[in-house]
Amino acid sequence: MDFSHKPVLLREAIESLDIRPDGVYIDGTAGGGGHSRAIAEKLTTGRLLSIDQDPDAIEVLRERLGAYPCATVYRGNFAGMEEAARDCGAFPADGVLFDLGVSSYQFDNPERGFSYQHDAPLDMRMSREGASARDLVNTLSQRELAEVILRYGEDRNARAIAQGIVRAREKAPIETTLQLAEIVKQSVPAKVRRQKGHPARKTFQALRIRVNGEMDRLSEGLDAALRVLKPGGRLAVISFQSLEDRMVKRRMADWCQGCICPPDFPVCVCGRKPRAKLLFRGGVPPSEEEIAANPRSRSARLRVCIKL
Predict the structure, then answer these.
(1) 259-292 burial, b if ≥16 CB within 10 A, otherwise e?
(2) Can you give the pTM of this predicted structure?
């Protein structure tokens, strides 16, 4: 299986984790194993837990990390990492890494149904379990579809697209990626069709996020990571789209905030203390060299915090 995925911000992420040879680390979204292997190479007596929900990724990870006795591969979603870490002897951890989004393998493998550039069954399930994108576009109401596209795709044409989907499925079920892409294209205004990029991009993003429950799992995973970390442990998160990055930024900011008493209170009565501190302010983008070598890295941002 050619599970190819070029790890983004690899050097920056590994350096930010400040890996100790005897430390314990968790790669919550191991994918093709690029970040995991870079961590494993720095360990001697330490441990690495590599988690992924995609069965294809798990097969590849077991092969690629087989040469590292320190590495344990675990199938699951990073939202459940606390249980996984306890089960696999990786609790508490010195560092946790999330590389969010969809791997190049998932995008480029037509049968997975993530891309509007290939004609394939409309699937989009990272775990290959549960309801698919086909199920959603053929069963959700017009109002529900519009809400999904607006919330997770941030597309101002959400209502028109939802209307177009419902109108099309009244004639026949929507089965494939290219079917859906064409429906979206015909549903948006002409000026949108003339803009750069395919008009279905945001709809596909929205459906993928909804199918996999990505925002809910991310929220749960961030909190789980903070619980799993030792004091002084580091959480590094690489995001690729604005919804993810906003959640990561706001959650880390919340962890870093101390007293929330009104300014006119003479003493603190809330007792709130910061639970983390930022390693650096703002997200770290990829270098120009990395973007030139891997254009898909352009939107990536790395944010890191240290547990207090």
Answers:
(1) eeeeeeeeeeeeeeeebbeebeeebbbbeeebbe
(2) 0.92
